[in-house]
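I need you to check the entry underneath: sequence plus fold tokens. Let me know what the token row says about the fold.

>
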Amino acid sequence: MAKIKSVKTKLYEWTGPIVPPQPNFCTNASDPLPEMGGSGRDNMGSFRFHQWLVCEVETDDGTVGIGNAALCPPLIKETIDRYLAPLIIGHDPFDNAYLWEKMYRITHAWGRRGVGMTAISAVDIAIWDLMGKLAAKPVFKLLGGRTKDKIPCYYSKLYADDVDAMQREAQEWVDKGFTMFKSRFGFGPKDGTRGVVENLKRVEAVREVVGYDCDLMLEAYMGWNLDYAKRIIPKLEKFQPRWLEEPVIADDLAGYAELNSGPIPISGGEHEFTLLGFKQLLERNAVSVIQYDTNRVGGITAAQKINALAESYQVPVIPHAGQMHNYHLTMANFNCPMSEWFPVFDVEIGNELFYYIFKGDPEAENGYLQLDDNLPGLGIELDNAHLEHFRIIE
């Protein structure tokens, strides 16, 4: 029986070219803050990340499972190296439920959310990849198997830009067979009535291209407040969005619940953590779609519990950000109807780094992606093709 003999972390720091995002490309939680002291603050700076954490869990037979995290990677590395690795070394990786509880409970005073839970997520994902490799099965087979022939996915790179550019981008992916799209808002409360007009102009422009026989989802990324959301939602209703994502900050559960009782379904959960965090959202009818991020929420172990809870409420789960750890959960659950998907593109926000660090992530074709029944684990491995663009800290 294989036992865990080591846990190693690597911090990948991008040193290659970066494409500066357009002004007002996406609202965010810091937008309402006034600029004081002439700082010229980059409001989106803390939401862009050009680092990634890789976690490798190895058993005594030489098998290695790979996990990852993108939230505060330097702190995640320190947390795993100092606190989590000693907790799991010497254990059977197939005791994953126990290992999750051990990491969660021993670090509970400071680790039950945020950085601590993200570190647990990275280790947990690595353990699931390891179990799949040891069992010679893809992770989705360990989670319950195939629930769909292939995974429908929505195109998610429609950041706010000038109207013509957004229409060209939308048309390109309509022509490639996509029927579901998500667009971001670039303006919020600080932009006043002019910003409302600019937001509506872009939604109308994208809807004009994709038509009403395609799904259109809209995201504010926590950049609004309750008052602003209540004023703009009636104006958005005519565009028939499938959902409005993260209209207010993640802690405003009452705001989510109030908005979710309105005409447009509200989605969220990207910045929520653990089963109990989502229990609160569901009990308050705060969201109509759950969008946890597996490499933040507590890993695959926590995500699978959330899937079951959400299904009991008949609330669909559509994990945030694509990526293989999310695709396996989507494939294995009836209550996960689709996946978010980004094309590989130049480094801009930071989500792109996943595709420069790992290889094996599936390419979507005609709005669908496929997982291999015969590829063990998550089906990804470290890619050496772009190492010249990274500084790696071990």
